Amino acid sequence: MVVDDNKQILAAVAMLMQTAFAKVITITNPNCINQILSDEPVDVVLLDMNFSAGINCGNEGLFWLAEIKKLKPTVQVVLFTAYAEIDLAVKGMKQGAADFVVKPWDNDKLLQSMQDAYLASKNINAVSQSVKPFPGTHELFWGKSEAMQKVRLLIGKVSKTDTNILITGENGTGKEMIAREIHRLSLRNNYKMVAVDMGAIAETLFESELFGHVKGAFTDARTDRIGKIEEADNSTLFLDEIGNLSYHLQAKLLTVLQQRHVVRVGSNKQIAVNIRLLSASNKNLDELVKKELFREDLMYRINTICIHIPPLRERPDDIVPFAELFLEKQTKNYHKENVHLTSAAKEKLKKLPWYGNVRELNHFIEKAVIFCENGTIDIDDLDIPVVSSSIKAHESTTIEEMERNMICHSIKKHNGNLSLVATELGVSRQTLYNKIKRYEF
Question: Which of 54, 86, 173, 258 maximizes the CB count within 10 A of its CB?
Fold first, then answer.
């Protein structure tokens, strides 16, 4: 059901929604809402927030949101307004709204918001098995597990706000992809997201890289250069692997986040910045705080909302769908046709531990496609990945130990060729060098 007092908007939205929903009801008078909800099996309501002429505070929308939730708690409500106040969006979502869409709208975003709201109105497991992405929408593959559907719904709720978000999860779970999806759904998506791998920045270059420098600040500083934080002004700054940042540099980052300005190296001028911060870590930052290896005040600053991405081995329902997605991608890359996995091969994939998570699965499928000759990948064609076979799943095994073992085995496999090691592990050479130094190989 679409509720808006502008008939032209109703006509445009109805035409768009008819490509995705079996039935679309449009009304201009919100007083009809209760009657229609009583008569029709409505799943989602797209609700305008202002109906009276000259009033744009959004109180009418909040009133009808409460009425809908009172009558039909499972019906999901997406708020629809031309006024993009973040406080109003947060207030509406706190009162039960599923999402917040600003006029003039983007068709793909509006359809995606309505799809997410529909998913929320149903049993997650049942819907995730049957509902496909709507035509024309941005498609990020989420898998079919309940855990990832919950992550998806959470992201839909927090993306429109400017709250700082910490994304946690093991290597290879897709933390950067999640960050990019949050930015895509945010109100800052007209600007490019700026991503920084904190593990790849040498300590001596930290300030120059993040804060920028002026000409002559140090040797080889031949021109002024803006830093990553200043580059992300009015956009999203993504700090990947923030747990790798040394303790004394954490204080400098905290100062910028608190004061919202940067000072370039070699200058005294304060430059105001307006950023939305996303961070990611494969480490347990709470444990690092206890060990005084990570600042507690910085932890509070970056961790307003925490989104945890579970490892692939904890969501086996996602393994085969991801494998088939990668199979389609890799067959195109290597110009092969009609390659498929047998049922036995799929079962074997589901039983592997995948310590490298989605990234390891992708590399594994790529290798299988390269060696496939008859169009069929069967159980005998799947040799156990080096990473998975060499690491025992044990409760005392830490992520750091797993990572160290992965690097060690890859170095042995490639006879010390670090370029091949970095490629296999999916990291930059600088990140690999930093980890080799850290683990003291």
Answer: 173
Region 313-439: CATH code? 1.10.8.60
Q: Which uninterrupted H or E stretch holds 340?
A: strand 340-341
Supply the angle between the helices 146-158 and 175-185 in degrees, to the nearest 10. Answer: 40
CATH topology of domain 158-308: Rossmann fold (3.40.50)
Provide the 3-class DSSP secondary structure of residue 339: coil
Calpha distance 412→415 (Å, rounded): 5
> Which DSSP state fits 428?
-
User: Do 2-139 and 158-308 come out as alike in CATH topology?
Assistant: yes
CA distance to 56, 158, 391, 392, per residue, from 225 (Å): 43, 33, 44, 47
35 CB-contact burial (10 Å; exposed 0-12 / middle 13-18 / buried 19+): exposed
Q: Which CATH class is domain 2-139?
A: alpha beta
Q: CB within 8 A of 34, min separation 6: which ones?
A: 67, 71
Tell me: the pLDDT tens digits for 418-430? 778 887 887 777 7
pLDDT of residue 11: 92
C-alpha closest to that of 103 among 133, 69, 136, 78:
78
Domain ranges within the chain, ordered by starting residue = 2-139, 158-308, 313-439
Degrees (nearest 5) of the Cα angle 107, 111, 117?
Answer: 150
Joined tokens for residue 342: 């047998």
SS (H, E, C) 189-252: CCCCCEEEEHHHCCHHHHHHHHHEECCCCCCCCCCCEECHHHHCCCCEEEEECHHHCCHHHHHH
CB 177 within 8 A of CB 152: no
Low-confidence ranges of the chain (pLDDT < 50): 123-138, 384-397
